[in-house]
Amino acid sequence: MTDRAPARRPNQLFRNLNAKIASIPMILTALVIFLGGTVWTIVYSFTNSKLLPRMKWVGIDQYERLWAAPRWIISIENLAIFGILSLIFSMVIGFVLAALMDQKIRFENTFRTIFLYPFALSFIVTGLVWQWILNPDFGVQSVVRSLGWASFTFNPLYTSSIVIYGILIAALWQGTGLVLCLMLAGLRGIDEDIWKAARVDGIPMWKTYLFVVIPMMRPVFITTLVIIASGIVKVYDLVVAQTSGGPGIASEVPAKYVYDYMFQAQNLGQGFAASTMMLITVSIIIIPWAYLEFGGKKRG
């Protein structure tokens, strides 16, 4: 037996050799472009790069300027409001719709397609559509006033204090369908015997969902949470299409801040510093998810 064991190890190395060879370009791309670009961005965030990158070290000056800029602070506040509300509402609405859809209703495929259709649109298209819908001259406000409510006011995209909520409405309209499909797939994976046992024991349906079904769907919730959160951090198209950051800078977000400083203000150092902070935010989301998904499995 001891003579055969070493002979098997080389065979393990050459198993699925074609697949391993085919994956080499993607591995090199990930290492050189993604990892290399990330390191390059972090390094140059400590320089005074303007129109072109240059190795003139300034330490953490770019980060001090970043956190002293009112525009960046507003973008972080907007991202926090948009992110928290988007996570809560998309998860709750998506799960409730999935629970209703799981009742074997008629025309389920039609409803699922209708709910998922907005996700197929680009954020630019979604932003423009909702810009028209929320426009006070010919959108919701105009329609309601034409019905007799002359004092009705609903123009979130033109009011600084609530503009981020107007963007949130468009984001929920587009992203909730994906959450619905993910949750519905998780519900369909629940064993039918569990539902039968709950009905036999006389457990109310809401308690079955709350104390049995939702804990069993933990991996689905975590995956959905990561997908939504990663999209929230890099939100850009929706803001540009709806408000371009206005009124004033009331709807600024970090991704737009990075783009403006790198390509319009021609201040690469400041743009690199802001993008590095965004990278840290994404890492805060991804690392706990990876630990929960893979670390727990290894311990098990």
CATH class of the largest domain: Mainly Alpha
Please give the number of β-strands. Answer: 0
The total of helices stands at 15
The CATH homologous superfamily of the largest domain is termed: MetI-like
Radius of gyration over alpha carbons?
A: 25 Å
CATH fold call of the largest domain? MetI-like fold
Strand fraction equals: under 5%
Pfam families: BPD_transp_1
Keywords: Cell membrane, Membrane, Transmembrane, Transmembrane helix, Transport
Family: Belongs to the binding-protein-dependent transport system permease family.
Domain ABC transmembrane type-1: 76-291
Structure, explained:
- Helix 5 (70-101) runs parallel beside helix 9 (163-188) and helix 7 (123-133) crosses helix 9 (163-188).
- The chain has 2 domains: 1-44, no CATH class; 62-299, Orthogonal Bundle (MetI-like fold).
- It is mostly helical.
- Helices cover 73% and strands 0% of the residues.
- The model has no long low-confidence stretch (mean pLDDT 86).
- The longest helix is centred in the N-terminal third of the chain and has 32 residues, at 70-101.
- The radius of gyration is 25 Å and the shape is flat.
- Keywords: Cell membrane, Membrane, Transmembrane, Transmembrane helix, Transport.
- Residues 76-291 form the ABC transmembrane type-1 domain.
- It is found in: Cell membrane.
